[in-house]
Amino acid sequence: MSNHQAHKNKLLNHANGPSLEEINGTVTVPQGKGFWKTLFAYSGPGALVAVGYMDPGNWSTSITGGQNFQYLLMSVILMSSLIAMLLQYMAAKLGIVTQMDLAQAIRARTSKKLGIVLWILTELAIMATDIAEVIGAAIALYLLFNIPLAIAVFITVFDVLLLLLLTKIGFRKIEAIVVCLIFVILFVFIYQVALSNPSWGEVFKGFIPNSETFANEPAIGGQTPLTGALGIIGATVMPHNLYLHSAVSQTRKVDHTNEERVAEAVRFTTWDSNIQLTLAFFVNALLLIMGVAVFKTGAVKDPSFFGLYQALSDPATMSNGILVSVAKSGLLSTLFAVALLASGQNSTITGTLTGQVIMEGFIHMRMPIWLRRLVTRLISVVPVLVCVVVTSGKGTLEEHEALNNLMNNSQVFLAFALPFSMIPLLMMTNSQAEMGDRFKNNLVVKILGWISVIGLTYLNLIGLPGQIEGFFGDHASANQLILADSIAYGVIVLVLLLLAWTIWDLYKGNKRVEALLKEGNQ
Questions:
Q1: Do 431 and 440 meet the contact criterion of CB atoms below 8 Å apart?
Q2: Strand bridging mode 365-366 / 13-14
Q3: pTM for this entry
Q4: Which residues contact 235 (CB under 8 A, 6 or more apart)?
Q5: Which residues pair with 295 in a beta bridge?
Q6: 14 beta partners
């Protein structure tokens, strides 16, 4: 009898078994079948991960980047997607080879104190993404059904019932639903971009980075190419996806006594991940193209979801006659709201699973999936609800701006949580003690991994002062800016100290494993 069965009547249980025990190793895969049949059996976990790369937090950054700088930031979307593919490959490989998810692997190599600190940090990052999902889903409900925002925010809590239903029908069906929702989002944006007839030559030229891509000027609408690039990177590569992938990659039944079977699982899981992340790349590229080609340049004054919805229903903002006639029918704006709702629901499923992974991995505590969802969602609903109530009497525009600012400001937690998932992931997949000779990262992956990890950590940390300045609004005083920068530099020092502690603990933990392996071989 598993721990899960033994304690299923309790709300809180000790957990130190397989990652996501209820679904671990539940999906059988065929042996000796062709490439496509085997790939189909392994397809699904990549979709759950890809959702995080196209959640509501990505939308305004990509569309605004297109509005302000045309196709200049296309290369940033491409680079972010390639880095994502590399990191997710390592996360899936760690899960399959070690049979531990990233949270379990970090906890096994570090002290209990550090485990609790990293758990709190990762929980904050998950709550930050949950705030974006609450805002996205509530706004979609308001736009589609005219439900008042305060009530729409409460309705998002009840998606826990949807999640309960999904857990009853089996993990394979959850994967299928997620894939269907991804295609809904993809087709909505393909349709809108196809009508806009963009200049494809300019689009492909944008994929080649140049000196202007990360420049500090020009500043358009308070955004420079550098801040636009940082926004896209910050909204694309998220820490919780690495924890999630290292867990859901273990849902396939693999014979770990057979190295060839393990190698096959790694290979096909990587194919699945790269295919799904390519779809996410297309969604983000289409969002940026929308910003350039669907709207007239400078037409979108309000990059919030409300502003984009209104812009899509206003013929005056459209770039050509076909779009004007479709905008008049209300189809463009309705499709946008449908895609927003699909994106919010997708992220709900993956956010809950990730919450379970980090709670079980870092502090060895398990709670039922519905309770986990309810707790996280209720905590995330509070700031959104406060924001709606406080601004409801001030007029529609202030309410929209406040919600948009809350969503953007909440993403600051992602910036400093990311290094604490990336660096341990890279260190452990580089290690022969963890991965063995066959599965440790080769030299090319090591070099690209360190370049990506150091580059992303640097970009996230230098973007932190600007993000914290954002908490004080668009018209911050000189004293407020000084305070924001002081807080930012204090946080950067704390992050670097915590990183040093994490790296040192992991290094010592790895040496312990190496010593035990040597003893075992003697």
A1: yes
A2: antiparallel
A3: 0.88
A4: 57, 58, 61, 62, 411
A5: 318
A6: 365
Q: Which letter does DSSP use for residue 475 in this model?
A: T
Residue keyed to tokens 């502003």: 307
> Would you say 436 and 97 are in contact if contact means Cβ atoms under 8 Å apart?
yes
Query: Tell me, what DSSP letter sits at residue 296?
Result: P
What is the rounded CA–CA span in Å between residue 61 and residue 288? 8
What distance in Å separates the CA atoms of residue 27 and residue 11, rounded to the nearest whole number?
A: 26
Tokens read off for 322: 């076909």
What confidence tier does 82 reach under pLDDT thresholds 50, 70, 90? very high
Residue with tokens 């924890």: 243
* Phi and psi torsions of 148, nearest 5°: -55, 145
| C-alpha triplet 92, 97, 103: angle, nearest 5° | 60
Cβ-in-10-Å burial (0-12, 13-18, 19+) of 230 comes to buried
Stretch among 143-157, 168-182, 248-262, 332-346 having the lowest mean pLDDT: 168-182
Q: What is the mean pLDDT of residues 20-34?
A: 81
CA 397 to chain centre: 28
Please report, as a single letter, which amino acid is at residue 104: Q
Query: Per the structure block, which two tokens stand in for 260?
Result: 């060839």
- What is the model's pLDDT at position 405? 75
End-to-end CA distance of the chain: 35
Lowest-confidence segment of 10-14, 24-28, 161-165, 340-344 by average pLDDT: 10-14
Q: What is the pLDDT of residues 383-436, one digit of tens each?
A: 888 888 887 767 677 777 778 777 777 777 777 788 899 999 999 999 888 888
Question: Which residue is it, tokens 């910050």?
Answer: 234
Separation of alpha carbons 88 and 84, rounded Å: 6
pLDDT in tens, 427-448: 999 988 888 889 999 999 999 9
